[in-house]
Amino acid sequence: MLDSTAAVVTVVELAHGITRSDTTERRDRRQRLLEEILTSVPIQPVTVPIALRAGRIDGQSQAKGVRIPLSDLLIGVSALELGYGVGTANGGFAHVSDCLGSGESLSLGRDQDARIEH
Question: What is the pTM of this model?
């Protein structure tokens, strides 16, 4: 995982997925992925600037009738604040991009583990 980082919220989502695994094989595979991420990339916290920006984007999106899951919102805003794109298998990040000001964009790529990538 070259030049990558992961949002702490991604760690929460992966731990949740491990717990909800319906087979031992799936649980073990997810556990290995989480361990690989924890040992190979920096984990980025949710900072006050990230929280404030996420709150503004959430307010704007809900005013338009769009509800963005909190985890997607925090991962997307973390990427924006840190200058990364988002590698994801989840389409929810497009809603974060839709709420950005002019001149801003969130780069979206497809990836299995929904990590933030530079």
Answer: 0.72
